[in-house]
Amino acid sequence: MFVEQNGVSSSRSVHCSKRLLPPLRSVVRDVIVKNRCCNPRVSSMFNREARIDITCEPKKDNVIDWDCIFVSVKLVAVPLINVLRTNTRSSSPPRFDLLKGEDSEEEVLKYRSKDKKERATHTSCTDKDRPCSRFIVPKNVQRAETKVAYGPEGFPFLKGERYIYKYSFRAVEGMKLGKRFTHIGQIKGAYNGGQTVDGDPIVSISANLDGLHVRFSNIDKTIPDYYTHDSWYRNWEDATGEWVHVTIDTVFGEFMEVEFAGGVSGKFVWPKDKTPVAWNNKGKMARMKLGLYHKEEQVGDGEVEIRDVSIEGPNGIIRTSPEV
Fold it and tell me: What is the CB neighbour count within 10 angstroms for residue 85?
């Protein structure tokens, strides 16, 4: 957890205390106490000039606290395979497989296979030297992901704002891929406070039989599907079993470049003629997703570990560990 006191941010673990606030009417005070201690959106409202510097405390077994880094995140939020409504005229929503998170208050939604015997898993990593999350997705299950819900105050992810996203991933050695896609990180256009738009993400860190690569998309006539380049593919076998460090530097609507380091390396820049650059005009904001999302019925199971996540924006930085 974190707290800001008198406009000064602190990454140390704290207990919420009413002594942090000036006297207020009790009904208002209680609400603010709860949120100011535990929600950076509310915390930074008390001092707009203060720069956020948050290091999220990990959960049990040093698992990343995604509710801190992404704020009010819904873990692994995906519908059941082949259980979506079949009548397209129906207004009833898709069905979801709803579970409660282990020793956690947030809801956890997880994919299952068609026979409901297999399910995706979010668990601790093999190395526990720093906060880390492992996503295990059987070949007949589609995904296990985390997604930004709102973002802390100062991180609205709007057009014209600069953000630097960083994370490291390690796919299990020998992990097999299909010919379609395996996404290990995406940023999508969104609206209505976080509902993602249909179509390809603004950027995807993806892999298939051709290798690990970057995909850009604006869902516009300049990129009707997604854009990548033959020279952007990196050997997938070199990436498995090794940490690959990803940096996404962008001003939404103006530029975006993605860099790999570690197991594989390279820099990939959004072409200036592919307008709108680094944006989706169907959305009002952007939302990041991390985890593993592959085309179901792959040739093999998927497993990836993610750590060293950080987001630096207009009002500061939020990260999963001091090493970032």
Answer: 13
